[in-house]
Amino acid sequence: MSLTKTSTLVLLLFSLTFSSCTITLKEFVKWKQIEFADLPEKGNLIQKNVVPQGFAVSKDKLFIAVPRRNIGIPSTLNYIKLDGREFYENPKLYSYPNYETNELNPSNEANANKIISVYRPRVDECNRLWFVDSGVINTSGNATVLQAPAIFVIDLATDAIIKRYEIPNHIVRDGLGLASITIDTIDCNENAFAYIPDLLNSQMLIYSLKDNVAYRMQHNFFRMNPFEGEFDIDGLKFSWDDGIFSITLGKRDDSKDGSYRDAYFHPMISFSEFSISTRILRNQTLATRSYHGNDVKLLGNRGKNSQSTMHSYHEKSGIIYFAEINKNAVSCWNTRKPLRPSNVKIIARDDIKLIYPSDLSVVDDDLWVMSNRMIRQIYSTLNADDFNFRIFRQPVKDTLAACNATASRRRKFAN
C-alpha cells in the first residue's frame, strides 16, 4: 500500500474513532433575541442587552435568569412554560414570580420586595427554587450596588417566597461575585444548606436554611491560577481572573450521619479540581477555621485550556460534566478514575452553537447546557439575525460510552 493511501486510512480511522466518542447535543430551546410576554407597553427593554446566563428546570417551567449586566433588562428572573414539546424556538419569557417583583424602581432605590439581578438559579429535590439576588446592576460598564445580596427560596407549588435572607455585610460587602448556588438538601423540611462561590473574594458562603444563618469559608484553593487565565474564544483574545465559580455535590454516603457528600469545586481560572466534605461545610466551627489541614483535597488536573464555568455530578454513573468555555465544549470525568487529562473526555464541541457554555446542570437523568455567546456581547457585537442563545437537553445514557462508564453503569440506562 502506498504511503498516501496509508496516511489516508490512518486519518479516516482517527476521524471515526474521534467521532464515535462525541455527540451532537440536542437543542431544546433557541433564541435569536429575547422577548418578554408580560411587559407593560412602556417596558424598559433594550433587546440587544438581554443575555440569559443561567437556568433551572422544574416539572412545568424552565426558569431563565437574565442578570442586569447592562441597562434595558426589564425582568431578571423568568420562565418559559413547558407543554411537552421536544423543541422550542424563540419562546417569550414570563417574569417570575411576577413582573412587579422584577421591575426596578425608576430611581433605583433599594427595596427588599424586588429581585434585582439573578445569574444561575437552582431547583432542589423538594420543588423549591433557590437563587442569589446579587443586588447589583451594571450601567455603562459601571456596577451600582442597589442593596445587599440576598438568598431567595420559593415554593414552586404555590409560587410563594418562603425565605429571603439578606447576607450580612461582614460576610460579603456586595454581591458582585455571587454568580451561582448549589443546594445540599437533607430533608424537605428546613434541613438544607446552600453553598455559594464568591468568585471575586475567593471564598465560599454557606447558608443554613434551618438556622437561618450564613458564614464563610476561606481557602487558598478558592483562588484563581494566574498562569491559566488566557482565553481565545471565537477569535477574541482576553484574560480573566475569576476565582471559585462552581460547586457540585457527589454521591451521598448514607452510612455516615447526615448523608455527607464530597463537594467538588473549581475556580474558573484553573485547570484543577478540588473537593471538601460537606461534613466540614455544614459545621460552622469547622468551616470558619483559619487552618484546614487536609480538609480540602486537590483531585488533579483536567488538562490545558479546560477552564470551566459550571459542572454537575450524575449520581447513578459517578460522572461529572464540565462546561468548558475555552473549547466551546462539554466534557466529562468518571470520578471512579484518577483525575488527569487522559480521563477527561470531550463529549460535545461546536464552535458555533456552543460558544460560551454559561450554565450546565444534570437534572434526574438528563444533561442540560446553556450557551449564550456572551463573549461576543462583551468584546464585539451579537448578530440579531443569528440564533445566539441555546439550551440543550441530552439523556445522560447517550454520553456514557464517551465518558468511559463501566458496562454495569451503562446497563442501568438500557431500559
Helix-strand layout with pairing:
Elements: H1 3-20, E1 27-31, E2 54-57, E3 61-65, E4 77-81, E5 88-89, E6 94-95, H2 99-102, E7 122-123, E8 128-133, E9 136-139, E10 142-145, E11 150-155, E12 160-166, E13 182-185, E14 192-198, E15 203-208, E16 213-218, E17 230-233, E18 236-239, E19 244-249, E20 262-267, E21 272-277, H3 278-281, H4 284-287, E22 297-301, E23 308-314, E24 319-324, E25 329-334, E26 344-349, E27 357-363, E28 366-371, H5 374-379, E29 389-395, H6 407-411
Parallel strand pairs: 1-5
Antiparallel strand pairs: 1-29, 2-3, 3-4, 4-6, 7-8, 8-11, 9-10, 11-12, 13-14, 14-15, 15-16, 17-18, 19-20, 20-21, 21-22, 23-24, 24-25, 25-26, 27-28, 28-29
List keywords for this structure.
415 residues; mainly beta; Neuraminidase; 5-stranded mixed sheet; 4-stranded antiparallel sheet
What can you see in these coordinates?
- It is found in: Secreted.
- Belongs to the major royal jelly protein family.
- Keywords: Secreted, Signal.
- One of its GO terms (cellular component) is extracellular region.
- With 415 residues, this protein is mainly beta.
- It has a single domain, classed as Neuraminidase (6 Propeller).
- Helices cover 10% and strands 36% of the residues.
- Strands 5-1-29-28-27 form a 5-stranded mixed beta sheet, with no helix packed on it.
- A hairpin with a 4-residue loop joins strand 24 and strand 25.
- The radius of gyration is 21 Å and the shape is globular.
